[in-house]
Every structure is written in C-alpha cells, then in structure tokens.
Design a protein that fits this description.
The protein is 33% helix and 22% strand. It is an alpha/beta fold. The chain binds adenosine-5'-diphosphate and magnesium ion. The site of adenosine-5'-diphosphate has 13 residues, from strand 1, strand 2 and helix 1.
C-alpha cells in the first residue's frame, strides 16, 4: 500500500479514518496488523480487497496497480459469513464457483482438502451443526481455495475459546506452510500476533495510522513453549507498550 488514506463522508461531515499508510508485505510472509478498535484495520483490508476506494494512494500487487480491483486477494471477513443453507462442502467451493469453476469439478477439487484439514466427514453438514472452530476451518478453507497468492484474515479466531484458538493457530501455520501463501492477519491478541508472524505492524487511532514495524525473528517451527522465552516476552512487551498498555497487562482492551 502506497500512501493510502481513507476519508468517509458521514452525516457529521468528513471522517478521516486512515491517515496515509504505506505498507510493504513481502511475498510468502505471515504479517499481522494490530491496533485498537477503530484504527482502520478492516478498512485497510477493504481497500486491499478493492471493496473500498482509497481517497488517496495506491494498492500494488506484484508491482501492478490493483487499486479498486476486486478478486485479486482472498479475504475472510471479521464475520465468517458461511451460508447456513449450504453444506460445508458447498460453502468451501463458493470462491471457486464465483471464479466460474463448474460445481462438480469444484467439489472434487475441494474434498481432499476437507479431508486433509480436519473437516473429513463433515462435508455434508450445514454450518449450524458445526462447532465454532470447525466453522472457522470451513471459512478459512474457502478463502484459501479462492486460489489467490495473498489472503487477508480479519480476526479469524477472535470469538474462539483459548484452547480452540491454540489449535486453530497450529492448523493455520500448517496450512500456511503447505500452501506458501502471503498471509495478512488482523488480531487484537498480541501473543497471537507474535506467535504467528514474521512481521507485526502496530497501528494507532485518530487518525488510523501505522506507528511501528516489528520484525519477529523467532525461528520456525515454533513450539508452544516459545511464549515463555525471553525473546518472545520482549517482543510482546514491546507491542503492548506501543499499544499503550502497562508492561504486564494483557491485550484484552485493544
Ligand atoms: P478496525 O477494524 O481497526 O476496528 P475499521 O477499519 O472498521 O477499524 O474502522 C475505522 C474507523 O472508520 C472507525 O472509526 C469506523 O467507525 C470508521 N468507519 C468504518 N467504515 C465506515 C463507513 N463506511 N463510514 C463511516 N465511518 C466508517
Ligand atoms: Mg475490524
């Protein structure tokens, strides 16, 4: 993103949601955006996905201007938006269908992924019959099978309990390794950002802007126990300090 700013026209006049933001996301990396509620994280995603026109600035993908162009990136919205009347399999193939792949072909393509990534046996269930973690797997697989090199995930695990969230993080890292995609990830959980990412960009609000880039130089694969190592703790404290939290506090209020 090059100098992207967004001003919304509201009943109370113009609202400057995003100050010029420049972000460089290298290919194949796992990059997180963290910041307080309302700092413009979802707005950034909407701009990158081409759903929101920036007031100024450009979005480049592989060096090519993609500003306002939809269908270039996979995007999982903050709400999973699985269609309740479709089976898990038919939810997962939605992106392929939108791309014009015939349904039978899309189903054949998707089935092995459901098997391999923990949804085997659930193909013909409806979303309402699944646990929260299973629903997020289905929504994530749908985003992945949209078949673009870049995927945007907006707080995908925000509503999950701690244990399910930890399982989903492992699952996502496996998928990221298998697929080799570029992932941009929004979370308000600082520990999650440090655990998953190669890079963290910290944002602030009023107006929304990026205030710091923190490279996470912890080796991979990362065992869970990494969270207690001094290197990990130092990175987490740095993020919390940038978010304006006292040193030993959790990120709940973000
Ligand atoms: P975040 O995802 O970081 O919580 P958002 O990107 O959703 O923040 O929103 C950034 C700011 O822009 C918020 O103050 C929000 O209320 C405002 N905003 C978002 N969309 C619109 C819109 N369509 N019209 C007016 N204001 C908006
Ligand atoms: Mg948001």
């Amino acid at each position: 993103m090059e100098d992207v700013s967004v001003t919304f026209q509201t009943a109370d006049g113009p609202f400057h949601a995003l100050a010029p933001v420049t972000l460089n996301i290298p290919r194949g990396r796992f990059v997180s955006l963290i910041g307080p509620s309302g700092c413009g994280k979802s707005t950034i995603f909407n701009v990158v996905a081409g759903l929101q026109s920036p007031t100024r600035g450009r979005v480049l993908i592989d060096g090519i201007d993609a500003t306002g162009s939809i269908g270039q990136v996979g995007y999982m919205l903050q709400k999973d938006l699985l269609l309740p009347w479709r089976t898990v399999l038919d939810n997962v193939i939605l992106g392929m269908e939108v791309r014009g792949v015939p349904v039978a072909e899309a189903r054949d393509h998707a089935r092995p992924y459901l098997q391999r990534y923990g949804l085997g046996g659930f193909e013909n269930r409806h979303p309402g019959a699944l646990s929260g973690g299973m629903r997020q797997r289905a929504a994530l697989l749908r985003t992945l099978l949209f078949d673009s090199d870049v995927i945007l995930l907006d707080e995908p695990f925000g509503a999950l309990d701690a244990q399910t969230k930890a399982q989903m993080q492992e699952w996502l890292l496996k998928i990221w390794t298998d697929f080799g995609k570029t992932v941009v990830f929004v979370t308000h959980d600082v520990e999650e950002a440090v655990y998953l990412s190669d890079d963290i960009h910290v944002m602030a609000t009023r107006p929304g802007r990026v205030i710091a880039h923190i490279p996470v130089d912890l080796p991979r694969p990362r065992p869970r126990s990494v969270v207690t190592t001094p290197g990990f703790v130092a990175l987490k404290q740095r993020c919390l300090a940038l978010l304006g939290h006292p040193a030993d506090e959790e990120s709940e209020a973000a």
